[in-house]
Amino acid sequence: MNTTLNLILAAKPCGQELGSTTGWQKLLAGLDKTGPDDEPLSLIRILDINGLDDAIWAVRATPGHERPARLLAVDCAREVQYLMTDPRSVAALDVTERYANGLATEAELAAARAAAWAARATAEAAAWAARATAEAAARAAAREKQRAHFIRIFGDNND
Prior knowledge:
Layout: E1 2-3, H1 5-10, H2 23-30, E2 41-42, H3 43-50, H4 52-59, H5 66-79, H6 87-100, H7 106-154
Antiparallel strand pairs: 1-2
Helix pairs in contact: 3-4, 5-6, 6-7
């Protein structure tokens, strides 16, 4: 897929100011250019020059980016799908992939998004509860150790 420097500039990249040393200036330098133009620029070239973060950012300045961007997000999420314990999260991936391929409606996508957010909220609540339980157990164990040290130091022949 291709974009252009003018399309990237229209998407307002950080560091487009004169003298900046951010991604915009790095890209221009890597292309041996001093300003934007309409020459086709591949996303892979941006990846090679600026790295993954800037290449992903530049996707939105690429005509027709919606489908491949969704598929990239799904592919990346599938890498950690084994960590997803709530079936709503996996279902959201399935619906998102189907939507990107024109096989699901916007209503289905919205419902899957809402379910995934609910799954996230459930997971966060469980994580906070587990953390609180673990912290309480750690405090109790530490206090018990302190009690044992206290008895060892003050308990014998110091009455």
